[in-house]
């Protein structure tokens, strides 16, 4: 493989954007994303179910294991008899759930990206093919996921420091920087999932360059998506951490199911928008989207085959 022949045009010298691309406007990208799942309703529904089920199982386990500990800590705090051992137990119990939640977010993003690319190309890639494609690309996805986690952790730390200096600086940093960094991280995951040879640091450079040459459309897209998603995120957080015993079990499960469905739809749509944004960028700059179908059909054999 030649090092000087990269597959992503956005990682190297970038041609100028065409003045009137087919989806250049933000509203055009949003409209495209709304109607896009209709191109392959069966696959998109199956992908959404594959995303929803593990999230629902994780939240059910969280409500059974962690929520009682949260209620215990809250009660002891209100009674001014805080038991530090209960607090430590709560933190220890939350760590594996937080880690699993991050992995599920990564999985949800990757499976949505691969299904969207397959549909965009008109490939007949089913759920099994998408999952096997993730198996093929998991290292790229995981490395970029670590980079995204590091970037957002640094951002949170800097925001807290600024907020301690002055609340206004912290608020401005959160409002202005978060949509940009979130857009960059989402584009990183898209690039790492679609392309074989671009992940981590290189994907970060590509994502920032695409955002700059795209006239910061990704930034404004993320602002719109974030504003639309705030009510869903708040509902999801309140429902997943609710320790109110007054509601019956069926009612709690119903609220949790509705909140989880809305949350998964939000993740699905946000990822889809950025995937279409990237695919549109590649098309306008003469890039070729690499086929996914052949990846999970190739099986290592003892006989060497030569490329045509």
Automatic annotation (TrEMBL):
<feature type="transmembrane region" description="Helical">
    <location>
        <begin position="219"/>
        <end position="238"/>
    </location>
</feature>
<feature type="transmembrane region" description="Helical">
    <location>
        <begin position="87"/>
        <end position="117"/>
    </location>
</feature>
<feature type="transmembrane region" description="Helical">
    <location>
        <begin position="43"/>
        <end position="67"/>
    </location>
</feature>
<feature type="transmembrane region" description="Helical">
    <location>
        <begin position="138"/>
        <end position="162"/>
    </location>
</feature>
<keyword id="KW-0812">Transmembrane</keyword>
<keyword id="KW-0472">Membrane</keyword>
<feature type="region of interest" description="Disordered">
    <location>
        <begin position="1"/>
        <end position="23"/>
    </location>
</feature>
<protein>
    <submittedName>
        <fullName>Uncharacterized protein</fullName>
    </submittedName>
</protein>
<feature type="transmembrane region" description="Helical">
    <location>
        <begin position="250"/>
        <end position="279"/>
    </location>
</feature>
<keyword id="KW-1133">Transmembrane helix</keyword>
<feature type="transmembrane region" description="Helical">
    <location>
        <begin position="168"/>
        <end position="191"/>
    </location>
</feature>
